[in-house]
Structure prediction request, 376 residues.
Amino acid sequence: MNEMIATVTQEEQFVEGCTGTISKLMRPDGSLAADSPRILIIYTGGTIGMTENPSTHCLEPYKFDYLIQNVPKLRRLFYNIDYFQFEEPLDSSAINPTHWDIMAKTIEENYGDYDGFVILHGTDTMAYTASALSFMLENLRKPVVITGSQLPIGEVRTDGEENLITALQVAAANDDKGAPMIQEVCILFENYLWRGNRSTKYSADNFNAFKSNNFPRLAKIGLGISFRNDVLWRPRSNAPLTVHYGLDQNVVYLSLFPGLSAGSIRHILNTPGLKGVILKTYGAGNAPTDRAFVEALREGVDRGIVIVNVTQCHNGMVDTSRYETGNSLRMAGVIPGRDLTSEAAITKLMFLFGQGYKTEDVKRLMVTPLVGEMHP
Ligand code: ASP
Prediction:
């Protein structure tokens, strides 16, 4: 066992309302200065901490102790690092709003004790978690850096070690006035730091797995870490951190394809309890103009369902004034989602309904940038 990071789980402390414990990574030689950066790692699971099950040969989530033993270099950062581990580490396809509440609560309850937070997460739903947390953590003034990896940390060619170490360095970085360089939720992956609510997983096997197609990178990771001060988010108010819990799950995606019938749309819009729909349209926000199709959407809007138009394209934005095909959606009461990613659009809708906003307010806020998630 590595003697420095000794993986000794001392001072275990239950975080109220959360499943997991906070553990101290002990440093036996007492080498840390009192002002060393203090970082809390929140380990939720994902490939980074997985090992192969010898009987099925499938990757399965494993405990943080195992993960940390594979990164002896952590000692050379000279940071105070503690970790909070989900009781059952998850493949991120199992993530749901309850897990977002746990992550947000862990940050809220430990906000004063740490300079930054690193969330280890599977890549599959990382962009959803990043988007959801960006809305939930209002007035965030400390870094929340989400990372993971494409290869488990125990593998020789792993990208996990580099991602973890760089994420910790980003979380510990200060500007020349001593304020945290990053004051938002972001995704660190391989060579890039992206705004969380602008990111998308675009590759199932590249080490550079994430992209932000409508927003520049926050930092380029190469020999050094060069931050782009001109694009970093800063909270608009001096108010303290306010955490909003309980995202509403009564929303769906509806993706257009040639041949989608008005009947199918009607069927989906009649789902009991449905409050919101992210409609994935073509190009600049276009959809068929035939009457039955538009009428099916209008009926939903008239019943109070909020329908938001986002494009299936990876780059560019919805501009429904450009073509008649987009204009007819607007006339039916569909809201233009401009350059929102699908991940940001659906989590924003879940967030707004979860906060109890009424239909008209949800419509207004869906076209209002809240935390840098869309073009003003
Ligand atoms: N299925 C894994 C997960 O999302 C993939 C990964 O972590 O890269 O948890």
Residues 95 and 125 are 7 Å apart (CA to CA).
